[in-house]
Input
Amino acid sequence: MMYIRLWMFFAGLLAALFLGWAALVGVPGVQLAAVPPQPGLRPYTFPQAHGREIYMREGCVYCHSQQTRPEGFGADQRRLWGRPSVPGDYVYDRPHLLGTARIGPDLFNIGARQPSRDWHLAHLYDPRSAVAQSIMPRFPWLFAEKTSTDPEDVVVAVPAPLRRPGVSVVATREALDLCEYLLGMNHTYPLERTRPR
Amino acid sequence: MSAAALPAPELNALREEMDRRARLPVLLYFGAGVLWLLAGTALGLISSLKLHAPDWLASVPWLTFGRVRPAHLDTVVYGWASLAGAGCFVWLTSRLCQVVVQWRGLLIGSVILWNIGLLYGTGAVLFGFSQSVEWLEYPLPAAGMIAAAFVLFGASILRTFQKRTVPYLYVSLWYIVATVVWFPVLYVIANLPIYSGVLHGAVNWWYAHNALAVWFTPVGLALAYYMIPKVIGRPIYSYYLSMLGFWTFALFYNWNGIHHLVGGPLPAWLQTISIIASVLMVIPVLAVAVNHHLTTVGHFRMLKSDMTLRFVVFGAMSYTAVSFQGSAEALRSMQETVHFTHYTIGHAHLGVYAFLTMILFGAMYYITPRLARSYWPARKLITAHFWLAALGVLLYVVAMCTAGFFQGAGMNNAAKPFADVVAITRPYLVLRSLGGALMGIGHVIFAVLFAMILYRGGRRAAANAQGVGQ
Output
């Protein structure tokens, strides 16, 4: 630092940080701001938005991605996880939940792949009853145990080893809304190359 | 008269005065850092165990994997590494500027605010109020407290820097000054609640990789640049290389972040420039590697006798390794297999643990006795700490990178059911827990040693004070 003045040092520091910001955030921000939502994409309904909050609260993003890669880059296409995702698929996502781990499978089209709410409820209650090798956590706090059920209660099909006589496992609002969110994760609508706004 | 020109007795007196003034803030940062290290280790072990024993503690909401895992990351990076690094920087800035620590009150305030922010943020993650954005989980009030604490810390550093009595600025000081300017700007911009969609993904990884670029890596490098020549007693290999290393580091590291989203729905050009910048990192890394390793070369015998040097040289070697691994890992051909796998987790621990944490341990072994006015008890325990940490992290990294490779290859084979891919990784996940347990035992030893040296130093100080009174 003998050879440059101190103000130049500080200016250089800020310039370096700013250049990186401009390249990775500023310019893409301008480009992506012009991307309209895909015509087939629906904004989240109230239960879906609530379910998304449960998804965030339980940290699902640390094991599940929500992005599908093109053919020629991994096996997402051959696994039938859905067409490659595009920026227009994510316009309503705040925060983003793209995810960087697939300890579990990608969920971008889980609603299309597994459209049964009963399956999802049983799986959230005890993942290993649905997939023996699963290492997913159980989420018993999304369910209530009841000795007598009301007609509007959604009773979970508890697997035999966990079943207790006289006790029904009932999905709470949180479990039902999380299912709404998962079932809504369906981006199989045809991709439209829309012109930027 | 500049401090560099002082005769020996005056220089010793100045050193003593600098250490006396640095004692309280630095030991507060260190003490809090050690506590967060223990908390973060416990959270890390719990999340590791849960991946191969998923039904263990399964009915406790705040201990579910998806909450404990981010709490582990946040406590070790914003708690342990940041607080320990800040403490080292306070001491090092004073030494390199040859002036006592300025604005100590701000530092005390910073430690308090930082810890309140950490408690708030970690509690929020565990009890269900996470922002669910990797590295940015803390809710805004907690993030704001940590940003403010960092600004207080930076203000004191810059004031000490301004009051310097030396005519030259040593390399470590460039990194220190740079980082206290960079990090608060980065952290505040990334936390602004204005992003959505894939742009938020870009902001997320611009931030998360830059947190390493503008804070955590400079901590490790500044300390290695100081400790290696200091302990060995010879100057750094090349001043010009360190200059080249610093500015290429500042220019290229900032552009790396989007290599975390290769193959994703972001513009292809954006992914490509991050991959290019990741490969260009070879330049600063080589410059730093040559400087560190060629300063060490010929003095490897000292690794046996000097524990600080042993930890720091292990860290410096890991820096070279993790950086080359990172440059290769960013390539599309590698990402096709290892993206979304445990490989990334292995890489992260080679960086934040084998590089940064080992250097922090080494630096704290050097700095603490000077401030606590006592000696480390039980040298054998320090040796045990070194081997537990070193072997633990090697086992961890090898297990995770191997697991990630097979996991990625399995996922790319569409004929293999996903559940089988999960099954492939399980033995490696057990090995990871074993590595983590070794590191954890090392941390307990380190914490006990730290408590003992503080206690001894305090008792001696009390005895001295009594002696003066008589």
User: Anything to note?
Assistant: Chain B has a mean pLDDT of 96. The two ends of chain B are 38 Å apart (CA to CA). The CA atoms of residues 378 and 449 of chain B lie 8 Å apart. Chain B touches chain A through 81 residues (CB under 8 Å).
